[in-house]
Write a structure and sequence with these properties.
Structural class: mainly alpha
Keywords: Membrane, Transmembrane, Transmembrane helix
Strand content: under 5%
Radius of gyration: 20 Å
Number of helices: 2
Number of strands: 0
Helix content: over 70%
């Protein structure tokens, strides 16, 4: 029973680890895509400075 609990704990950890990794990669890709898509539209507008907080 101890070995089963140990392996379940490790598989749970791997699921969390890969979930975080996937979420990070996906959010980075979305960030890069949105930056590319909106960069040319917001280059010389005051809204860009407003969103960046500067």
């Amino acid at each position: 029973a101890k070995h089963v609990a140990f392996s379940v704990g490790w598989s749970f950890m791997w699921v969390i680890l890969f979930g975080l990794l996937f979420a990070g990669v996906r959010s980075y890709a979305v960030y890069k895509y949105s930056l590319q898509k909106t960069d040319h539209m917001l280059t010389n507008t005051p809204a860009r400075h407003h969103y960046l907080g500067s």
